[in-house]
Automatic annotation (TrEMBL), chain A:
Any one GO cellular component localisation term in the record: plasma membrane
Protein name, as recorded: Sulfate transport system permease protein
Principal location listed in the UniProt entry: membrane
Membrane topology of this protein: Multi-pass membrane protein
Subcellular location: Membrane
Keyword list, A-Z: Membrane, Sulfate transport, Transmembrane, Transmembrane helix, Transport
Organism name: Nocardioides szechwanensis
From TrEMBL, chain B:
SMART domains tied to this protein: AAA
Keyword Transport recorded: yes
Residues in ABC transporter domain copies: 3-233
PANTHER family: SPERMIDINE/PUTRESCINE IMPORT ATP-BINDING PROTEIN POTA (PTHR42781), SPERMIDINE_PUTRESCINE IMPORT ATP-BINDING PROTEIN POTA (PTHR42781:SF4)
Annotated Gene3D superfamilies: P-loop containing nucleotide triphosphate hydrolases (3.40.50.300)
Gene Ontology cellular-component terms listed: ATP-binding cassette (ABC) transporter complex
InterPro entries in UniProt: AAA+_ATPase, ABC_SmlMolc_Importer, ABC_transporter-like_ATP-bd, ABC_transporter-like_CS, Mo/tungstate-bd_C_term_dom, P-loop_NTPase, Sulph_transpt1, Transp-assoc_OB_typ2
EC number(s) stated in the UniProt entry for this protein: 7.6.2.9
Name under which the protein is recorded: ABC-type quaternary amine transporter
Secreted listed as a keyword: no
Species the sequence originates in: Nocardioides szechwanensis
Record keywords: ATP-binding, Nucleotide-binding, Sulfate transport, Translocase, Transport
EC category: translocase
Amino acid sequence: MVDVSLPAKWLLRIVAVGYVFFLVAWPVGLVVQHTFDAGLDNLTEALSDEQVAGALQLTVMVAVWAVVINLVFGVGISLLLVRFEFPGKRVLSALIDLPLSVSPVVVGLALLLVYNGRDGWIGPTAESRGFQIIFDSPGMIMATCFVALPLVIREVVPVLHEIGDDQEQAARSLGANARQTFLRITLPGIKWAVVYGVVLSLARSLGEFGAVKIVSGNITGQTQTATLVVESKYQSFEQQTAYATSFLLILVSIACLVVVAFLRPKRTH
Amino acid sequence: MSIEVQNVTKKFGDFVALDDVSVSLPTGQLTALLGPSGGGKSTLLRIIAGLDTADSGTINIEGTDATRLPAQKRGVGFVFQHYAVFKHMTVAKNVAFGLEIRKRPKAEIEHRVEQLLELVHLSQFSHRLPSQLSGGQRQRMALARALAVEPKVLLLDEPFGALDAKVRKELREWLRRLHDEVHVTTVFVTHDQEEALEVADEIVVINEGRVEQIGTPDQLYDEPANDFVMGFLGEVTQLGSIQLRPHDIELSTAPGLAGAISGEVTRCLRVGFEVRLVVRTEGGDVTVVLTRTHARSLEIAEGSRVWLTAASGATTVPAMVAV
């Protein structure tokens, strides 16, 4: 520890606390305050609003699909990156980080270009068979998957490195095939990293706005997720409903953080 | 012959780990693969187990061609240097793993696990997690786990390498006794010549990807095929044009025997019951080891003039050109 004089210590604390307070705590606190400025009325009103209720359902559906897809591909890609050597491995590893650095709006636009129903060959083909991608849930799930892609992988990869492949080799020599080795040895070893990654992905998926706004078309009552409803309610002067919906999103985020906080110490075992 | 390795070559990039190696390892014996680190012995063991694949050559285990068989179908038990315990399972579950994979009846598994834990003296630890065991206990558990599936051959990769000296010695004696009880064909890798000489029925000396010599511990010690084997199995010193062990040099304080090389004692170091002398001769420094009593009776001290000859019956190899 660096020795810091007492006044400097207090100054540092005040700066840090002040920074977080003005940037995070106060604004979030105000949203909560506005939600409850008429008791529970705002909340019950928002929940009885069909547009809000539908959006919440849609959000949960999109987020759950995105998390499940990212879970399967995330664990698969992690195994590929850590346990196998193949040409292009470093490119793949770099590509996986792309969603973290690219603006979600750009992601939405890019997906729109590839899968829209008018030009290109995937979109029109799918639509002619009655399967709409853009301006419907498949596109929204894809956009959400894209932005949450690195979260599971970046949790699982270091743990896979850490546990090494000794145990897997031992299992193989004892007669276990690839599936048995994965289910009985690898998966229990990375269990907490997977759970942690899933929670992070869930939080990210529920809060996604930019990419989903573009690919969903933001159609009221049909393809609006919770974050999109917050925006449209706010713009149509229904601030109370916007606050109430925001509050629900905050609540889920806090729940996710609490779950993560509980998991963290277990990972150090 | 239980394991036949024929013309096996393995490269890692430019590095040749094994260069056209052929060995036959007999059934029921305890064989040591001995050599310096990076000499290829672990690679050979992993290729026999199917954990690595050879670039060319064939592996035959108990009469079946195993060259293309995956590890899980070779019927080998493998023990890793760093134990490779299944961290999330109890000791009993670890040992039961292979049997559960084979879907044996529950009662049979239970009985067999009990038997094996007794064999490795871990019965009272069956419900513990591996993290609650000492290194030596973990390795015994790993051994029981490998034996559970009744392997045709048991392969151990530097099994005691990660343990401290005392435990290593205990486990080494214990492995020998276990092998005498169980009689499964066993191959273990080690870089510790003492370990190999003490435990093995037969030793394969491997260096730089090649087999230097195969033989019993006595053969290797008494008739080393070359100066590498001689040097690897124990201390050597050069006297004139031959290499021999420092305790195989006879020392006298008067010029008696023909061909004796004269020199002056420049260092005299007492280590326990031994006295180690460095004698400066015309051909360079020679190390000589005497018992303390012998040294005292000859009244050797630094500065003494002595005459050196190879003892009759000493193991010698011609010296390579001095570097």
